[in-house]
Design a protein that fits this description.
The protein has 409 residues and is α/β, with parallel strands linked by helices. It has 3 domains: 8-22 and 288-405, Aspartate Aminotransferase, domain 1, CATH 3.90.1150.10; 29-184, Aspartate Aminotransferase, domain 2 (3-Layer(aba) Sandwich), CATH 3.40.640; 198-268, no CATH class. It is 35% helix and 13% strand. The strands form 3 sheets. It has a 7-stranded mixed sheet with strand order 1-9-8-5-4-2-3, with helices on both faces. A 3-stranded antiparallel sheet has the order 10-11-12. The chain has a two-stranded antiparallel sheet with strand order 6-7. Helix 10 (336-346) packs across helix 12. It is globular, with a radius of gyration of 22 Å.
Length: 409
């Protein structure tokens, strides 16, 4: 197959996630869609998975209980249930990622189910009213997983308002290094949080700033902070060098920030009583929600138009619903591996959500989940992408699809 790798001059470094910029603070506070935080009791924690663990604990989940999790999932959704001492069972999803209520009913008939996680995948809100009614009949807690859906509504119900508790991942929607939230419209949150220390606060701030600098944002601030950042890097490299040479203390120092910020699937219980950093909380208060919603919707629809008629693919969602603020643009690809490899060579940021499922979750558990994990490639549509970055992304994805379709399978 001919290479679709872009020549070096055509390669671009575009941010895979939102990054800080001056524009992020412009655009107004009033968004077209409700926020996960609207009208709820809120605790800002360091990650969505920590929020899951706290929600399960609030529901009284413990040893001998079962937590139902969608068979299409991030592996990070499972360890919080194990932290509570519970077992996990996986329920089927429909081709559009909605919960399969018949399969959930079959699990409930077996007993022991204490809580169900229901996910609004890729920021497309599901109608959870039937699942809410099912949970109420069986006395089961419902946790609304809004990690992909910080803004949105379905049939008049705001995301996060249907579950007993809801969780969010603020770092998927805001230009911050760490952050999640636990919210509830139905219960008071009996959760007390503490600061994680000066090292955490500094790392959260510097990592958010360095991410912005790496993609050409905030150039004046980058110039002003050049010397302190070089000093920080030198100190950090010296610390790592001492550890590698065995001169560090026998017991490694606690991590300055949760591993969830670095794409791990671990659940570190040391962060269950820690609040999100000052910078992350300040960014949530100050950036423009209206801009986030409007630009994500625009960027999603622009990419969909750019790929209209492209061979060997189709959007997971044929039309972006009016009540959706997307996390990413999910595309189903007939020949995903060669397309993925071509885009990877070109440096295109993308996610294959569900490509790694929990051990034992296979087609016999849920064929739809396995098919989505194999075929789906998701592309960024966040608010920080500028015009040139979006145009390059569109061209690279279309080029890879056209090139792979031209080669016989």
């Amino acid at each position: 197959m001919p290479s679709t790798t872009a020549p070096p001059s055509a390669r671009r470094a575009i941010p895979p996630v939102p990054v800080l910029s001056l524009a992020a603070f412009m655009g107004g506070r009033r968004a077209a869609l409700p926020s996960l935080l609207d009208g709820a009791d809120v605790r800002l924690v360091t990650s969505g998975r920590i929020a899951i663990g706290l929600a399960l604990r609030a529901l009284g989940v413990g040893a001998g209980d079962v937590v139902l999790v969608p068979a299409y999932h991030s592996p990070s959704m499972v360890p919080p249930a194990h932290w509570c001492g519970a077992d996990v069972a996986f329920y089927r999803i429909l081709p559009d990622t909605a919960p399969d209520l018949a399969d959930i009913q079959a699990h409930l008939a077996k007993g022991r189910v204490k809580a169900i996680l229901a996910t609004h995948f890729f920021g497309i809100p599901h109608d959870l009213a039937p699942l809410r009614a099912l949970c109420d009949r069986h006395g089961v807690g419902l946790i609304e997983d809004c990690a992909h859906a910080f803004f949105g509504a379905r049939d008049g119900a705001a995301v996060g308002s249907v579950g007993d508790y809801a969780i969010g991942s603020t770092m998927k929607f805001f230009p911050i290094y760490e952050g999640g939230c636990l919210v509830s419209h139905r219960h008071r949150l009996d959760v007390t949080l503490h600061g994680a220390g000066a090292g955490f606060e500094m790392k959260a701030a510097l990592n958010a700033l360095e991410a912005a600098f790496a993609y050409g944002r905030l150039p004046v601030l980058r110039l002003l902070l050049a010397l302190p950042l070089r000093l920080k890097s030198a100190l950090w490299n010296a610390r790592k060098s001492r550890a590698a040479n065995g001169t560090a203390a026998a017991s490694p120092a606690p991590a300055l920030a949760p591993s969830s910020s670095d794409s791990s699937f671990e659940f570190d219980a040391r962060w269950t009583d820690k609040r999100s950093s000052w910078l992350s909380r300040a960014v949530l208060r100050c950036v423009s929600p209206a801009r986030i919603v409007a630009r994500r919707r625009r960027n999603y629809q622009e990419l969909q138009r750019a790929l209209d008629g492209a061979p060997g693919c189709r959007p997971l969602i044929a039309r972006l619903p009016d009540g959706a603020c997307p996390w990413m643009f999910p595309l189903l690809v007939d020949r995903p591996q060669p397309v993925f490899e071509a885009l990877q060579r070109a440096g295109v940021p993308m996610t294959r959500f569900g490509a790694s499922l929990w051990p034992g979750v296979d087609a016999s558990v849920c064929a739809n989940s396995v098919d989505l994990g194999r075929r789906l490639i998701a592309f960024p549509c966040h608010q920080a992408l500028d015009d040139a970055e979006r145009a390059w992304l569109h061209a690279q994805v279309r080029q890879a699809l056209d090139a792979c379709a031209a080669v016989p399978a």
